[in-house]
Amino acid sequence: MPMIMYSFLDDYDLSGKVIAPFVTSGGSGFSGTLDTIQEMEPQAEVTEGLSLGSGEADDSADAVSQWLGEIGL
Q1: What residue ranges in 1-73 does DSSP mark as E strands?
Q2: Which distant-in-sequence residues (6+ apart) come within 8 Å of 53 by Cβ?
Q3: Inter-axis angle of helices 3-11 and 33-40, to 10 degrees?
Q4: How far, in Å, CA of 42 to CA of 35, rounded?
Q5: Residue 65 pLDDT class (50, 70, 90 cuts)
Q6: Which pTM does this prediction carry?
Q7: b/e string for 9-34 if b means 16 or more Cβ within 10 A?
Q8: Mean of pLDDT values over 33-55
Q9: Which long-range contacts (CB under 8 A, 24 or more apart) does 64-69 make?
């Protein structure tokens, strides 16, 4: 997870909020990021994340819409 995300999660209390993580990646995907977010924000709901390969990012509208529907957002 990029350091800016650690700083953001340190600075803001997301208790009671829904966190819907997404990432574009060249291959590493979430690499434990979902667990880290849940550890840093134990009072938040962390949904199933969406991981798109770098080749999928340009045309991701359908994948994002489907994912949001699946997680109830």
Answers
A1: 18-19, 22-25, 45-46, 50-53
A2: 24, 25, 26, 27
A3: 20
A4: 10
A5: very high
A6: 0.85
A7: beeeebeeeebbbebeeeeeebeebb
A8: 94
A9: 64/22, 67/22, 68/20
Non-local (6+) Cβ contacts of 47 within 8 A are: 18, 19, 20, 21, 71, 73
The band of 26, judged by pLDDT with boundaries at 50, 70 and 90, is confident
Residue type, 56: E
53: left (phi over 0), alpha (psi -120 to 50) or beta: beta
